[in-house]
Design goal:
It catalyses: L-threonyl-[protein] + ATP = O-phospho-L-threonyl-[protein] + ADP + H(+); L-seryl-[protein] + ATP = O-phospho-L-seryl-[protein] + ADP + H(+). This protein is mainly beta and 298 residues long. It has two helices and 26 strands. The longest helix is centred in the first third of the chain and has 12 residues. The N terminus and C terminus are likely disordered. Bound molecules: 2-acetamido-2-deoxy-beta-D-glucopyranose (5 copies).
């Protein structure tokens, strides 16, 4: 029997499959999740987390042609950026390069000049890895000590495992900051923060607009905030396990993923929170000042 033209023998396929599955360096830009001293990431290369869920790389915005270093869900066809390294320092072309400098800091350079210092911390023997939860961690490979992590420097998105609140030992306050507009990641008008009650028995989310209180979620009661009735309700899929943590080193709000893809809460430029995991449900509409309009509407 004649073989059809273009027929690929199963053994050939097998061998190729084997080569790929072994991750042999068939291509110089084979996906990796880690960057070390001497490595460079430019606009044509990316880091991919081990399980493939998250990608880190440069992206550019069509309206401006500015480029930024960011993280996104690899398969998100809307390419929503869940983190941006340089929101206020765009690169005006696509010549940005992420590298580790000799001090072990992560920096972005363009034309050989350092434009942005991504990690303020450094260490000898440091390596930065994009983890499966979307956290980009700079760690000391010898001591396995975390030196710096993107989850400690959130932009406008809260991912499962990220925290809103503060660290008692470092005084760090984890807050989200909205983009200025859909095309400008630079600091916008709104922040989302965690406000514990005085006795630290519970807490609520607060949105401030240019520093002034704009909206609060009401206290967390079980798996709902009082003024976020849509969240985890019957009309939207139950995706999040909400947790408030009060212990010796922190006081914060976080959530875990239950099911679903592209789970994220985004603080939009207009001051509302969008749940990306639920085909884009607004969970805190902008006109729900202090939650009052919602209550009156029910
Ligand atoms: C990115 O790096 C690769 C490999 O070093 C190189 O071949 C490519 O030309 C670079 N791309 C840009 C846009 O500089
Ligand atoms: C962005 O770059 C492209 C290609 O160089 C160009 O055609 C376009 O006009 C630029 N857009 C802006 C907003 O500068
Ligand atoms: C690209 O932009 C950066 C600043 O964002 C600048 O330092 C660099 O010279 C530019 N490179 C080119 C080739 O225009
Ligand atoms: C954290 O920052 C937010 C927004 O700026 C502020 O409202 C809140 O009081 C801060 N929390 C602490 C503990 O500093
Ligand atoms: C607070 O910071 C300390 C010191 O960096 C760290 O060990 C601890 O894990 C942090 N706490 C939280 C809740 O992230």
């Amino acid at each position: 029997m004649e073989m059809e033209e273009g027929f690929i023998h199963p053994i050939t396929l097998f061998i190729f499959g084997f080569l790929f599955s072994q991750g042999l360096n068939l291509s110089p830009v084979a996906a990796t999740s880690t960057i070390r001293l001497g490595d460079e990431l430019n606009s044509t290369s990316q880091l991919v987390s081990n399980d493939g869920v998250f990608t880190l790389g440069f992206f550019s915005i069509e309206a401006t042609n500015y480029s930024y270093l960011g993280i996104w869900y690899t398969k998100d066809d809307q390419s929503r950026r869940v983190w941006v390294a340089n929101p206020n320092t765009p690169i005006k072309n696509n010549s940005g390069v992420l590298r580790m400098d000799t001090a072990g800091r992560l920096v972005i350079t363009a034309g050989g000049t350092t434009i942005v210092v991504v990690s303020d911390k450094s260490g000898a023997n440091a390596a930065a890895t994009l983890e499966d939860n979307g956290n980009f961690i700079l760690a000391d490979e010898t001591g396995k000590r975390t030196l710096w992590q993107s989850f400690d420097h959130p932009t406008n998105v809260l991912l499962p495992g990220m925290k809103l609140g503060f660290n008692r030992s470092t005084g760090q306050n984890w807050t989200l900051t909205s983009w200025l507009s859909d095309n400008l990641p630079s600091t916008g008008a709104f922040t989302l923060s965690w406000e514990p009650t005085i006795d630290s028995a519970s807490g609520q989310l607060a949105i401030h607009r240019r520093g002034e209180l704009y909206w609060t979620s009401g206290l967390l009661e079980g798996q709902k905030f009082v003024y976020m009735p849509i969240l985890n309700s019957d009309i939207m899929e139950y995706h999040y396990k909400l947790r408030q943590v009060f212990d010796e080193n922190g006081n914060y709000f976080t959530f875990d993923a239950i099911t679903g893809s592209f789970l994220m809460w985004t603080l939009l430029p207009e001051g509302n929170i969008l749940d990306g995991g639920n085909t884009n449900f607004y969970i805190s509409p902008a006109d729900f000042v202090m939650g009052i309009s919602w209550i009156m509407g029910v």
